[in-house]
Write a structure and sequence with these properties.
The complex is a heterodimer of chains A (193) and B (51). Chain A is an all-alpha fold. Helix content of chain A is 77%, strand content 2%. Chain A has one domain. The longest helix of chain A is centred in the last third of the chain and has 23 residues. Helices cover 69% and strands 6% of the residues of chain B. Classes of the chains: A mainly alpha (193), B mainly alpha (51). Chains A and B meet through helix 1, helix 3, helix 4, helix 5 and helix 6 of A and helix 1, strand 1, helix 2 and helix 3 of B. Strand 1 of chain A pairs antiparallel with strand 1 of chain B.
């Protein structure tokens, strides 16, 4: 059974990565049902906080940006107590983190939904670290490929803009799901038991 | 359902580097300082009435 789950998750992740690399977007059929199934499965196991968090994220997405940010923050802190008791606190932080990144336009909707699904499946801290490292590596790859030796200056410029609460002038976008898929595959095959 | 309908799979690359680095450095620094992040979040949640 474990191998079947691993294979199914792997096939789904590979599909997401390939679709994103080819088209820059992924059909909602490949992201929404897995997110709902993973959330419902968690809720059925007693970890209902992720269900509440999903409602908060969907509602916040319909609000003006300032209100949405406040809603996400309030939702995270209100859900944190039960999440810690249920052992899904790392997943909750990942959920609200990627929702905030989607809200400000750093991540696409398909990326956010895929990460949230993975966090529901693998709620431990390891997935968060794997995602961060894979995201950093992938972003570095894209920026070095485009800017070469100017990379440190480009990153410093982006850091300066973000420190002033502004988005960098260069808004180059690239597929994010390959890094998400890599982190998910490592989690599924090495840590999921 | 703006969130559920968004099909985009693209990230902002420069921002990705900066944010990933900031989060990694912040977590490592907090751990090095001996701050129990889960405890802090739990305390805030309790203060807000969710704990």
């Amino acid at each position: 059974m474990l191998v079947v789950i691993r294979l199914a998750v792997s096939a789904w992740l590979v599909y997401l990565a390939v679709a994103d690399l080819r088209r820059g977007e992924v059909s909602n059929w490949a992201t929404v049902p897995p997110l709902l199934v993973a959330t419902i499965w968690r809720a059925a196991s007693g970890d209902w906080t992720l269900g509440v968090a999903l409602v908060v994220v969907v509602v916040a997405a319909e609000c003006p940006p300032t209100l949405a940010g406040g809603l996400l923050l309030a939702g995270m802190f209100l859900c944190m107590g039960p999440a810690i008791r249920q052992g899904v606190e790392a997943a909750l932080v990942v959920w609200f983190g990627v929702a905030a990144l989607w809200l400000v336009g750093v991540l696409g909707g398909a990326d956010a939904k895929a990460v949230m699904t993975l966090a529901a499946l693998f709620p431990g801290e390891r997935l968060g670290w794997l995602l961060l490292i894979a995201w950093l590596g992938q972003s570095l790859f894209y920026v070095i490929r485009e800017h070469g030796w100017r990379t440190p200056r480009v990153v410093a410029s982006a850091l300066g803009a973000l420190a002033r609460f502004r988005m960098p002038e260069s808004r180059r976008r690239a597929p994010a799901l390959p890094a998400v898929a890599l982190a998910g595959l490592v989690c599924a095959w090495l840590y999921f038991a | 359902m703006r969130f559920l309908n968004d099909r985009s799979g693209a990230e902002l690359t420069e921002v990705g580097i900066v944010l990933a680095l900031v989060v990694i450095v912040a977590i490592v620094a907090l751990r090095a300082l001996g701050v129990n992040i889960t405890g802090v979040l739990n305390n805030v949640a309790a203060a807000l009435g969710g704990g």
